Backbone:
């Protein structure tokens, strides 16, 4: 049987796929040079204390089984090819939760020669190499609280409207 | 045989402890007195001195000059919630809130801008300081050389030197 890769993934297809993804999302944890603070918080979310399995969220070991990638860390230069490899294996729609200050804006390493300074800076690079990320939710926090991560998942699935928005005030 | 029923020991312990899971979206999350969340800048109090931008470890607070305005830009996506900006602010314009539900799908939602009016140098026309900061300094300093207050640092230096060089 010939396997066809899905190249053309229209907006309508994406909306359809997102509608189907309301419950029981499977997550894959991808550390890209994180200090392990956010990883411990992700572990916290999976424990019986916060118990995300009541929402059907389950940790899987392979990106091929995953709906959502939990990305932590500022994306070091060494980790970049591995991230591309892991993200390529995720089936469409490709959803990413960028957890922690590092994954969002690079944290204190945003100017370093050894890191890419967050996921936002590598999006174009990934797009050029054929990896389209359909939706990203940025979760700030150093580390992000377990509640903040659960809130981020709710934002990703469209269950709540994000609270923060751009503000411009005159002094 | 004994090994097989070892797990039975857990049952009385589990029934004693009961359910520990917190119902996060419905229950209030545990936020203690010392918890630090996103900061909030009071635009009425901020003078645009930039003390917070110098202390900020990840440069989440930056001063950007765009045309005639000086913008104090706060990018919460890079903030490490250390609270040093609130400590160092001379006007106490920065307060630490308990907000942590900051997740959003658009990265520009994470920015907050505070716009300041700039003062133009009377001689060369460079914009060098926020108007509010100049007014603040004027109100604090008793003996202020009024004629040189509205000159940029470079012009002020030249002016002072030329006055010292010319004999009276």
Residues:
């Amino acid at each position: 049987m010939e396997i066809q890769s899905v190249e053309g993934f229209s907006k309508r297809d994406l909306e359809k796929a997102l509608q189907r993804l309301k419950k029981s999302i499977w997550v894959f944890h991808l550390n890209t040079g994180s200090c392990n603070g956010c990883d411990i918080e992700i572990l916290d979310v999976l424990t019986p204390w916060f118990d995300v399995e009541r929402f059907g969220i389950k940790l899987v070991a392979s990106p091929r089984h995953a709906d959502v990638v939990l990305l932590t860390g500022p994306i070091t230069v060494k980790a970049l090819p591995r991230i591309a490899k892991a993200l390529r294996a995720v089936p469409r729609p490709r959803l990413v939760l960028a957890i922690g200050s590092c994954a969002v804006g690079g944290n204190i390493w945003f100017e370093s020669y050894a890191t890419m300074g967050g996921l936002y800076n590598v999006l174009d690079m990934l797009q050029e190499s054929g990896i389209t990320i359909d939706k990203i939710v940025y979760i700030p926090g150093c580390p992000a609280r377990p509640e903040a991560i659960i809130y981020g998942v709710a934002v990703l699935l469209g269950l709540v409207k994000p609270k923060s928005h751009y503000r411009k005030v005159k002094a | 045989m004994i090994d097989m029923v070892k797990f039975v020991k857990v049952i009385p312990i589990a029934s004693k402890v009961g359910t520990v899971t917190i119902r996060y979206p419905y229950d209030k999350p545990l936020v203690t007195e010392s918890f630090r969340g996103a900061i909030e800048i009071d635009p009425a109090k901020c003078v645009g001195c930039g003390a917070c931008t110098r202390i900020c470890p990840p440069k989440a607070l930056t001063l950007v000059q765009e045309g005639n305005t000086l913008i104090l830009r706060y990018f919460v996506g890079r903030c490490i919630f250390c609270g040093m900006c609130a400590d160092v602010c001379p006007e106490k314009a920065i307060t630490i809130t308990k907000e942590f539900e900051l997740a959003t799908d658009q990265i520009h939602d994470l920015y907050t801008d505070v716009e300041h009016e700039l003062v133009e140098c009377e001689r060369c026309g460079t914009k060098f300081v926020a108007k509010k900061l100049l007014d603040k300094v004027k109100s604090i300093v008793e003996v202020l050389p009024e004629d040189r207050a509205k000159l940029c640092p470079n012009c002020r230096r030249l002016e002072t030197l030329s006055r010292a060089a010319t004999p009276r």
Q: What stands out?
A: The beta strands of chain A are 26-31, 58-59, 68-72, 95-99, 135-139, 167-170. Residues 41-156 of chain A form a domain with the Rossmann fold fold (CATH 3.40.50.12280). Chain A touches chain B through 44 residues (CB under 8 Å).
